[in-house]
Write a structure and sequence with these properties.
With 294 residues, this protein is mostly helical. Helix 1 packs across helix 2, helix 2 crosses helix 10 and helix 5 packs antiparallel against helix 12. The protein is globular. The chain starts with a helix and ends in a 9-residue tail after the last helix.
Length: 294
C-alpha cells in the first residue's frame, strides 16, 4: 500500500512538515549551527550503508567534488539558516516561506540556465513574490522576541535559505545530471556534514542538551532528511520531477497544524491569505497550473 504515489506524497509532506517542529526543539537546546551539523551528520550515517549496499561508492568517488559542494549549498547553508530562523519566527511562517523555493528556483534557472518561464509562469512568479512580500512585510520587526532575536532576521534567514536551495537546484541540473539520485543525496549529506563539522564543534552548547532535544535531532536526521530523501526520489521516479516538487505545496499544511497543536503557535488570517497567494503563484510558476500554453 505504501508503494502508491499518493500515499508517499502525503507521507513525505507530513515528514517535511514535521522538520520545522524538530528544528525548533533542537535549536533551542543545541543552537543553530550544531542543530544543522547534527542533522546532516545523522542523515549521512543513515544513508551511507544504503549507498554501499547498492554499490554506488565508486560513482561517489568519481564525482566527489561537485557532489560534496552541492551538499554545502543544498543542505549545510539552508539547514543552518532555517535553524537560526526557527528561534525568532513560527514554524508555520517558516514553512510558508519555504514554499517559495520553486519561485526562486525558476528565477535562478531563468538567469543561469536560460530557462525561459513563458508568460503563464512569469505571471506566477509575480503573484508568488507579491504574496511573499506581503507575508514578510508583516514580520519586518527588529524588536527582539522571547529568545532575543528579531523576527525580521528570521524572515531574512528563510529567504536566504530558499535562495540557496534554488541555486543548488540549477547547480545539480548543470553539473550532476545523469548521476544516481541516491548517490547525490548521500554524498551531499556527507559534504554538508564535513562543511559543518568545525562550526558544530566550535558552537557546541556548554550545557548538556536534554534527552528530548536529542530525540528531536535523531528524528530530524533520520526521518526528515534520510528517509525523506528516499521517498522524494521514489516520487521523482514515479511521477516525474515537475509533479514531485509540488510536495512543497502540502508541507505548510502539516507544518502549520503541528505548530498550532503542539507548540501553541498562532495562525492569523493574514498568514492564511498570504500563504494562499504564494502557493497559487508557485503553482503557476512551476507549470503545475497553466493559464495559457505560452
Amino acid at each position: 500500500m505504501l508503494n502508491h504515489p499518493a500515499l508517499q506524497f502525503l507521507l513525505l509532506s507530513a515528514i517535511w512538515g514535521a522538520s520545522f517542529l524538530f528544528m525548533r526543539l533542537g535549536a533551542v537546546e543545541f543552537g543553530p549551527l550544531p542543530t544543522a551539523g547534527l542533522r546532516v551528520g545523522i542523515a549521512a550515517l543513515a544513508l551511507l550503508p544504503v549507498l554501499l549496499s547498492r554499490g554506488l561508492w565508486p560513482q561517489l568517488r568519481a564525482h566527489w567534488k561537485p557532489v560534496l559542494f552541492c551538499g554545502v549549498i543544498n543542505s549545510a547553508l539552508p539547514f543552518a539558516l532555517f535553524s537560526f530562523a526557527v528561534l525568532s519566527i513560527s514554524t508555520g511562517l517558516m514553512s510558508i516561506l519555504n514554499a517559495t523555493v520553486p519561485l526562486f528556483g525558476a528565477v535562478v534557472a531563468w538567469a543561469w540556465l536560460g530557462d525561459n518561464p513563458g508568460a503563464s509562469r512569469t505571471l506566477g512568479l509575480a503573484i508568488g513574490f507579491v504574496g511573499m512580500i506581503m507575508l514578510a512585510w508583516d514580520k519586518v520587526s527588529f524588536q527582539p522576541g522571547a529568545l532575543g532575536l528579531a523576527p525580521a532576521w528570521g524572515v531574512a534567514a528563510c529567504l536566504l535559505a530558499t535562495t540557496s536551495y534554488a541555486v543548488s537546484a540549477s547547480y545539480t541540473r548543470k553539473y550532476l545530471t545523469g548521476l544516481n539520485p541516491l548517490m547525490v543525496a548521500t554524498g551531499s549529506q556527507v559534504g554538508a556534514a564535513l562543511g559543518l563539522a568545525l562550526p558544530t564543534w566550535w558552537f557546541w552548547p556548554a550545557q548538556a542538551p536534554q534527552p528530548q532535544a536529542w530525540l528531536a535531532m535523531l528524528a530530524l536526521g533520520v526521518l526528515c532528511t534520510a528517509v525523506a530523501y528516499v521517498l522524494f526520489f521514489r516520487l521523482i521516479e514515479q511521477l516525474g520531477p515537475a509533479r514531485a516538487i509540488t510536495v512543497t505545496f502540502a508541507v505548510p499544511v502539516f507544518a502549520v497544524f503541528y505548530g498550532v497543536t503542539l507548540l501553541n503557535e498562532t495562525l492569523t488570517p493574514w498568514m492564511l491569505l498570504c500563504g494562499a497567494i504564494v502557493l497559487c503563484g508557485t503553482a503557476l510558476a512551476t507549470g503545475v497550473v497553466k493559464l495559457w500554453n505560452k
